[in-house]
Amino acid sequence: MKNIFGMTVPEISQVLKEWNIAPYRAKQIAEWMYQRNAVSFEEMTNLPKTLRQKLMENFMFFRAELKARLDSQDGSTTKFLLSFADGIAVETVLMRHSYGNSICVSTQAGCNIGCAFCASTLHGLDRNLTRGEILSQVIFINELLKTEGKKVDTVVIMGSGEPLMNYENVVGFIRLLHEPYCLYMGYRNVTLSTSGIVPEIYALAEENIQITLSISLHAANQDLRTRLMPINNKFPLKDVVAAAKNYGDKTKRRVTYEYILIKDLNDTDDFAAALAGLLRGQLASVNLIPINPVIERDFQRPSQERIDAFEACLTRHHVTVTVRREMGRDIQAACGQLRNKYLVQ
Q1: DSSP readout, 87-156?
Q2: Is 91 part of the annotated catalytic residue set?
Q3: N or C, which end of the chain has less CB nearby within 10 Å?
Q4: 3 domain-assigned
């Protein structure tokens, strides 16, 4: 039985047309699901009982359910483990900033990209998430924030999984999120992070959605990036950067390059200079991420002095750079850590 949560108004309208029911009912159903916190068809009280009964007979209605929650001591970060109809669980993170509330969503249960520094890939990939399962992470947290008179302001597609390996569901989620009957979130409030799936980066540039593209780079030469990110064997560094440049040129949106700083591996001034050279002439910026150590991985965070020196070197080379503010270290905020704990219980 198909889960109705995640369907668009046109898709619901098509079903209603087959049942000879007025198409305006589709918008009512969508608003109940995405804006009015309904968890069952019975709650949709402006629908005829006959329609509610028909929906119950033909569709399941399942949203994300909470399995675990961790709150940072400073109250700025909350990590949720959310499960779906088949019991698969993923992580979603709420980050409270002075300028608004940002959430990080997962697009796959697990990951098979194999990045050497990441916890998400330790148990491989279980499956892709559907459009509705990705959206339900946002809806879950948005409803929690409503109780505080707040809302989700920005969405970062940077949780477990490689979004561009689940292209259709991810783009469908972004478009649904933007709909007036859903959360009506502006495309520019969405950031998608990819390890560099080159064909889909080119495809994304043609979608006419003004989201921010973020490239997980982490090294400025082919050999080290391949060591850190095996996907680099399939999509070499130069091809990834060329695809990202095309995205920036097509959309006029600044591309962000994420660079995890790892002690004694990629944190020297020489690496900073090489990174600056790689990005020369692009509409781009760099987001430095001092590594959040993962128990199962043998990588360490550089000293603050080294972080500052790397940042200063990029600035001298006229690269726009920010250092990501550390959030949630006390709750193991790196992707995959809470899910891995759940899997081995």
Answers
A1: S-EEEEEEEEETTEEEEE--SEEE--S--TT-STTTT-EEEEPPHHHHHHHHHHHHHHHHTTT----EEE
A2: yes
A3: C
A4: no
| Last-in-domain residue among 58, 76, 99 | 58
Q: How many domains does the chain fold into?
A: 2
User: Whose CA is closest to 204, among 129, 255, 138?
Assistant: 255
As a whole number of angstroms, the distance between CA 263 and CA 290 comes to 9
SS3 state of residue 273: helix
User: Domain of 307?
Assistant: 65-343
Question: Which candidate in 111, 118, 182, 335 is catalytic?
Answer: 335
Per the CB < 8 A criterion, the answer to whether 270 and 264 are in contact is no
Q: How far is CA 217 from CA 72, 129, 197, 323, in A?
A: 28, 24, 12, 15
> pTM for the full model?
0.92
User: Could you tell me the two tokens for 324?
Assistant: 């990501």
Active site residue 335: yes
Q: Using one digit for the tens of pLDDT, what is the confidence trace for 251-269?
A: 999 999 999 999 999 999 9
Which is catalytic among the residues 42, 43, 91, 182?
91
Kindly state the helix (H) or strand (E) to which residue 16 belongs, with its residue range: helix 9-18
